[in-house]
Protein 1
Amino acid sequence: MLEPLRQGLPPLDPAAVSDAASCSLPARYEAVGDARRFTRRTLDQWELGDHFDDICLVVSELVTNALRHAMPANSAHALEHNPPVRLHLMRWTGRLVCAVRDPSQESPVARDSDDFSAESGRGLFLVDSFSDSWGWHPMTGTLGGKMVWAVFRLQPHAGPAVNSSE
């Protein structure tokens, strides 16, 4: 069990957010594809399409974990009308935060596994590897559940190489 992690999460001043988008996701595994398409459209609109591969991998893992580990058993039909998983993308000048909210109060569990051929169990390892930092925190108030987030630093695009010997 992991303690709630907030270190590495930059101060989130809502007034400083340059762009934000979110979508609700139904309690079905097909929602992972919906999350990828939403992420692609959003990053393209923000002219961040060159960051898609890493961000999409992390979004896929966070949404998959929410659907696999945070959903009450036999709840898919009841939750279709009130989607319990929500993907948030927020951009500041130099960073992007991907956050997935789900209804579970349980902390994410990183599995220790040396079996690199296993088809599951490496999601949080991938999130840690491809993002600059990640963590989670419980939600308060009427929402309940938790938010699992990952931060990406957005490097400014380098201009064309300049040959200084000319």
Protein 2
Amino acid sequence: MARARSEERRADILRATLEVIAERGYRGATLGAVAERAGLTQQGLLHYFPTKEALLLAVLEERDQWDTGGRSDGRRGWRLDLLGSLVEYNAMRPGIVQTFSALLGESVTESHPAREFFTRRYTQVRAEMTEVLRSEFGDRLPSGLTPEQTAPLLTAVLDGLQYQWLLDPESVDMPAAFRDFLTLLRAEEHGTEPPGGTGSPG
């Protein structure tokens, strides 16, 4: 019974954290603000999550659980066309994207508490993107690259666009830019014209 109450309290805290992030962004998600929203003292919150990094990592892990639909193997079961929908969905939750991107940037330093999470996550995501690409294209993309070669590039575009969008959302249309990248992936090796192209002059 005590364990069930503890898990319920942790779930309440994570929901409160998501609400605070949505309202105030990454920097505004202080332990004090979350504790107040969850109806706890800051000391009470620290009983469940000893640092802000631990709390925010738990939120990101919870987000991944939602994105996988609770599958026991942690896989999302994405298709290439559904990745565009994910990008559109992320564009509607900037606070979570900001939290993810801020912790990702910090995690590259030695001994950062988020380093193991992101290292493990990228290993999984590259494997998932390989599966997505193989399902769409088989063993070779139109460019001639294999799904294994392309998966890190696809992953880099997904996360790299988020940084550009967060810095300048008025100039970077993240969903549209990702759709353009999918057009590149599907282009024939010897030059399918981009939409609206007129070909060589003369």
